[in-house]
Structure prediction request, 111 residues.
Amino acid sequence: MREKLKTIRDRVLYVMENYPETRNNDLYLWLIYVRLFDNDLSRYIKFIPYQYIKRAVSFETVSRVRRKVQEEGFLLPTDPETLRRRRRLEKAFRRVMPRISVGKSDHEFDI
Prediction:
């Protein structure tokens, strides 16, 4: 199967077609993908039925909380390159995004 499905897109389509629950949850899609197509990681990831995945705290929620904690300056990344990259992106975002004043109408912005 790995030889037949060469691209990530082909493999993702295969997973989504054969494991319909993966269409509802990106984490579950990734887990099944890894189990089927990543020889190294698949040894460490056991099959988890979707009924348990959908009851678990979502990956997005955990990721959002991590971002918020680090945005507040706590528990920053341990990899210096990751920290540099995130700081560069933050500076670029702040330059591009206009500051919106509270209490003004939708079309009035302080830039």
